[in-house]
Amino acid sequence: MHPKTANVVKSMNPEFVITMGDNQYDDARLQDFTAYYDKTWGSFKSKTRPVPGNHETYDPAGSLAGYKSYFGSIAYPNGKSYYSYDHGNWHFVALDSNAFDQSAQINWLKADLAANTKRCVAAYWHHPLFSSGEHGNDPVSRPVWQALYDKRADLVLNGHDHHYERFGPQNPSAQADPNGIVEILGGMGGAPPYNIENVQPNSQKRLSGTFGVVKLSLGESTFSWQLIGVDGAVKDTSPTYTCH
């Protein structure tokens, strides 16, 4: 399925590409990236802004070894597995949720958000705080959500669970909040799908067994998206949100 979702990305010809971890199964070794990922999603590697998932930590050569060797400075622009960048009126934060228990990354995130001058803020990493899928909610992400919520971030994108889901604006305690953060769970890039288990509060749409790619539309002060299936059909269309 990897080649089919890569073809969807190619047809979009996006300005940049975000991945939410588990870029290469099963152990994310460099030879696996070279043999498989590079022949599909690797065709737009130069404009990909990745983050690692848990599978990138399984490399026998060392945690994130193959991931770091393959992506190089694209994934480590400042020598760390987390980074940020701007695109138009948007500030993007790419995080490593394998290391959310380390204070250095949280402190860096808070400083990065404090220095941001863009109106719209999006962050992405692997393990979701909120998910109706088999893995479910992962509390490791709560401090990050809190830091983002405190700075009025707009959008979070996650993976890990192998389904598609979107959540309406909410706070880190799962309470609906017009000043809260919108979440996209986009885990349908190629690995076998997971079932929907326990529908979470504020979940507005869930699809299991649908492979595809999320196409973001980013305005100066608004955002929306569509889920494009591997057959080219639109599987879901979000509301249009205004940045805080």
From TrEMBL:
<dbReference type="GO" id="GO:0003993">
    <property type="term" value="F:acid phosphatase activity"/>
</dbReference>
<feature type="domain" description="Calcineurin-like phosphoesterase">
    <location>
        <begin position="9"/>
        <end position="164"/>
    </location>
</feature>
<dbReference type="Pfam" id="PF00149">
    <property type="entry name" value="Metallophos"/>
</dbReference>
<dbReference type="InterPro" id="IPR029052">
    <property type="entry name" value="Metallo-depent_PP-like"/>
</dbReference>
<dbReference type="InterPro" id="IPR004843">
    <property type="entry name" value="Calcineurin-like_PHP"/>
</dbReference>
<dbReference type="InterPro" id="IPR039331">
    <property type="entry name" value="PAPs-like"/>
</dbReference>
<protein>
    <recommendedName>
        <fullName>Calcineurin-like phosphoesterase domain-containing protein</fullName>
    </recommendedName>
</protein>
<keyword id="KW-0732">Signal</keyword>
